[in-house]
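agent> call fold_tool(seq_1)
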Amino acid sequence: MLTPAALSAIAAPRRIAIVGASRDPNKLSGKPVRYLSTFGYSGEIVPVTRSATMVQGYPARSSLSERDEIDLAIVAVPAEEVAGALSMCVSAGVRAAVVFAGGFGELGERGSANQATLTEVAGIGPGGMRVLGPNCLGFLRGATGVTATFGSVLDEFDLLEGDTALLTQSGGFGSAVLGAANAAGVGCSWWVSTGNEFDVSLSEIMEALVEQEDVARLLVCSEGIKDGPAFVRAARRAKELGKPIVMLKAARSALGARVAASHTGALANSNAVFEGVARQLGIVTVRSLEQLLDVGRGLIAHPHGSNGPTTIVTVSGGAGVIAVDASADHELELADWSTDWQATMAAGLPTQASVGNPMDVTATTGAEALGHALRTAVAYPRTGAVVALLANRRQDERSRSELLVDVQLSTAKPLIVSWTGSSDLLSTSLADRGVVAYSDPSRAIGVAAALAQVGENAGAAGETVVRPRQRSRPDSLKWVVRADGSRLLRDDSSRALLAFYGIDTPSEMDIANEEDACVAAQKLGFPVVLKARSTEVLHRSSAGLVRPGLTDEASLRAAVRELQVALPEVVMGAGTLVLQEQVPGGVELLVGATEDRTFGMTMVVASGGVFAELIDDAQTFLPPISAEHAASLVRRLRALQVRPPGPSLDALIDTAARAVSRISLLVADNAHEVTEADFNPIILTTTLLGESRAVAVDWLLLAQRAVD
């Protein structure tokens, strides 16, 4: 986390030194001096160079000392000179520095020597001087005129004022994004390029900027997250403050991840993990720069998003079809119109119009009918936002624009426009008056979906994880060391731990021979399942260590003999045979946990059984989560989507959600010991009394490191 002192040195430095400053205002090392002067920086500019006594009208120094009281140093020297320059800055008491040069860790082996010289500089990092970069284009903050960059994009336009923070890891692309944002009408109060993040990470910048009064939203281009805990803190704080984060995550593919590593040195994260974590944290993720800026424009007009399903009003059936498909892609809920409101809508439309959703008012509809459709749509109580799909009609573009503005002024609900074939200046003129417009129905729907997510985040209460009623917790966890050195939680410990968290498991009994098995079966009741409990083979079903559906003593005795003969000691390890009650069949889920190198303990819930092999619909999250949150994830699983809706399905989902929440609590509470967990399957079933039950039939808990 950036300390207040370090953040102050970046946000509002009193004195800025440019190390390696050039007299040529067009050179890389000369541009920062020119930009600071041009963009109104009011503090002291201190060029540092041995080649001149004056630089662009400012007295130059040959070196820095503590007497200079420098807050921020812009280091504009070649890679081989960076370590020396940073060492001088640390000795002079500089609080923060920006390094432009590339040629470090982002080059892998080729840059390792230069990277090593940076790590040898004492006094850099938390508690010392913070360094942005290397291999970055720096940053700017409009309010203070701090332009610590050499990006030539600043020569190409006047910066728009605004309250958006634009953050990128890439330098060159980041500069282009700033230009694109400016052209799209997204004014930025901050722009930061973090480069290869030798010290200060993108996550730390996010965490710092979310607290700034001149930041209302963050648009982020990331190639990989290096500091997961700071990222999570930033996102949660942004959600608390109502400041949306919109993120374009590159390096989603394996090839993209390799390219990212060679570009900024980014540590690529599993895209599935990132998407799940982002969704949980309320981050809006997008797939393109166009969509990033589209959503940015939408949030400038509607900072709090939308509240409720969307209604589509279109003048073209074809555009409506495109919009419906895009709604499905974005999982955007469309409003269900009641019969009486459909009648109200139809009363002001031509007879050939359709009053479903989308509302197709037809291409020949005049301004009066279109106005009726839009005003009725925003008045409908179940509508949270309206998407208007228009086309051509340049001859009455002005009158229709006035209509759109009037409708938007009449309501707090977002009106999002797609106007295909309009004049080039239309979207700008509408945006200036509070109406966001795009050229493609899919783009408008993407913005509507983002606004719906932002509104949902704003209305969501903080997660409350309910602990099950108090039971006696095991005094200590007992582990078995496996052949590979990892540790498996002993069955008696794991069963006691699951019971403590209220996680349902089948009744079972250890057995040594056929006679034990028959006695146990009489107590448990047929049918039963025979399993070999092995410390070396973790996935018993695939290894043939499970015999389900044993309905009588003959089949049970045969199964015992078969497993005893078939399993050598090397497979069993410290295992035994165990007899379990047969849990009635039902929907099978998988819940797992593992240590992610970025986010720590990360969990998934997925369809189990045959679905686990056929489909990929795992939902990823950080533990612990509430039962309400777990239910939202479980509902997304296709194993449950294929079941008919109704009270029985709702009851199963609620039961599954409680189990998932309790497992997540177990994982979070015991993350200091448990590094991997696997509950597969959890069977969702209904008892003879009609009660829903979620039973963890098989599970394992592992520790890869020594347990204190």
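agent> call fold_tool(seq_2)
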Amino acid sequence: MHLRRPLAPASAIAAACLFFSAIALPASARQSIAVEIQSAETLIAEGQYVQALATSRSAAQKAPSDHRARYYAAMSLLGLERFSEARTEADLALSLAPQEDRTSIESLIAAIDLQSVSLTAEADAEAALAAGLNARAARLFAQAFEADPSRTEAGFQAAGLYAGTLKTPVDAARILRKIEDQSPDSADRARAAGELETLAPVIRPIVDDLVRKVRSAIDSKDAAGAGKILADAEALDSSSGSIAIQRARLAAIGDDARSLEMALLELASKNADMDEAVWVLPNLSQWLEQDWLTTLLQDYKGADYVKLLIDAVDKGMLPGSTFQDCSSCPAMVVLPSGNFVMGSPSTESGRSSDEGPQRTVIIGYRLAVGKFEVTWSEWEACISDGGCRGYTPDNLPGWGKGKHPIVRVGWIDAKSYVSWLSKKTGQPYRLLSEAEWEYAARASSSTPFHTGSTISTNLANYNGSYTYGAGATGVRRAMTMPVGSFPANGFGLHDMHGNVKEWVEDCRTESYENVPSDGSAWTMEGCADRVLRGGSYADEPKDLRSANRDRTNSLSSDRRFYIGFRVAKTL
């Protein structure tokens, strides 16, 4: 099957028509050839390849050693998709040409080879598709598009097969992203963007996972591994702010100041704030010794901002750092500032209507969050010091205390603990707002769980008799586990999914309409229902999702064995 369609616009072929060096012929012959060469150029520009071929071959007959005639014959044959003949003419032109003209002819030969591969692959792909060989067809359409990115229809064909029949959406997304980023045709770009949006629920978890992996590779100073993962992530989502931040972090591993500067300046185009990247740069203390960075940051946020950074470095209070304000106080983790999309998409399994509408929330301040849920030991320290209203919760036989999370505490009990902690340390401890909690739980992810699109009982404490998504059943422990028994999320926080539900500051709302987007809590005087987050050992995995919202009466004396809390403070 041979596809009869233009390989390239006539203007693109005509653009290769260059002035060549003069040919040593009699004046009358040179004039005749010049007329024919000029005519061939004009005909190629108009897409009249048959006439251009006849004209250039006429010139070649008059002057067999004139490489210009052979060159334009090759261009005409390329326009007619007669690749083998075009290559023969181009090779002959190259053999005849003086050194100063060889570059143009070599470029033409490369174009012939490229388009020959592209057209052959596309023709074979059409035949494979007609025969029902979808995998082969997809591979050949993709090959045709990679050989010649102007063949966007071949790219769309490949993407459609990958996303549909073959169920490999990552392959589809790579092709669509290339069309969206590189195609000069606005209609093609819009079409690619629309198809990518359709694939987004599938692609976002993959990108999130790649971001987690690249963050880990950078933390391990594995620049080569991080670079490879970043390239894969950027192929799927070239506009991601999270990916751009990791690109800046990767640049900071080495000593190339220019690369780091460019990565920081590019953040704005990716809808990422420079503040989000600067605080998490590897080797920040060394970089702050360089004048170009301090000048850049002063221009960005002023001299006081630079002083704040230097002070945080000196005190070991950069994002990811842990600290305790007293020996019996909760361990705290410094979080990076940033923004995130709060709530769940309508397509997320297990979603409730109060998880929307989704909205962007900005955590534009420095925040520390409890590394673990408040434990029995920490609660008992409060009691021993005369705090927490002297309330000692009951416990069930065999459950243990110590490092297990405190349970059977109401919202007022949790508030009494942070009041005592603030008084003891002189620091502004409090409960997290609901927005802060979800930001902390997600740790830059957009998937149902910080672990990805599903979760397992190896990663959290919940009722493993139930599953979520493609997950498997697991253990049903039916009790709390010591805090830190499961891996931390990307911010270094443990048990954000499961173990015990956690009180937050907010009153319960029916939706996210008209609630703050700056990270602060939504409260009203006298509200009874307060929000609980994170799910517990007794819950199904759907109730552990980062976006899931639960609530109960905060004024009731009915305290539950599956409810606890963690603390926060603004730095």
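agent> summarizing second result for user.
The CA atoms of residues 145 and 155 lie 5 Å apart. Residues 1-23 have pLDDT under 50 and may be disordered.
agent> awaiting next instruction.
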